[in-house]
């Protein structure tokens, strides 16, 4: 279910794809008719290639060496999972089609097609745009930042709902931090049988964690000056019964 809050500035598809890639800890590889899962085995090159550590006696290593050079022979899949438990926890999926070549004891995957699927739909990203993009500066710190906000500062999350339009809080049962990037914070608004997302924009982008702290304090100051939504007041009262 979508909410009526207008969406603020956010990362483009290429930057979002590179952020998913930078933060992912695991990936699935489909090649030569087989699918394998790898955890903590990949790193990313500056232009978005993927270096993968696989055993030299693995079927994937053999298939990569035997495949025609330069032809798409494999697909890598990365899932962007929300750090805080929420409904429909996968925020995006990234697929890279391309080919492997040997780089010492590792395999280098060169993408020839990049597709990012988010709740809004799938986007085919131009290869030059993908290669030139850089991850969001908060991408690798996001998981720790959001879990700390949810676990240690639930009062702050509740206060931020004062910046959400009242109609988006109708029948709310839970609000949780879903995502954060240099442009803003996204809250997941959960209801009994539905949910929606609302984005709170920062006044200027945050280029690092220290700037993010200042941007969050600015949002909280703004929220403190706003009235508590009636929908949330009713939910709090119902929960106290």
TrEMBL record:
Residue ranges annotated as transmembrane are none
Extract the Gene3D superfamilies matched here. Answer: PNP-oxidase-like (3.20.180.10)
Pfam families hit by this protein: DUF2470
- Tell me the ranges covered by the DUF2470 domain, including all copies: 143-219
Could you tell me what this protein is called?
DUF2470 domain-containing protein
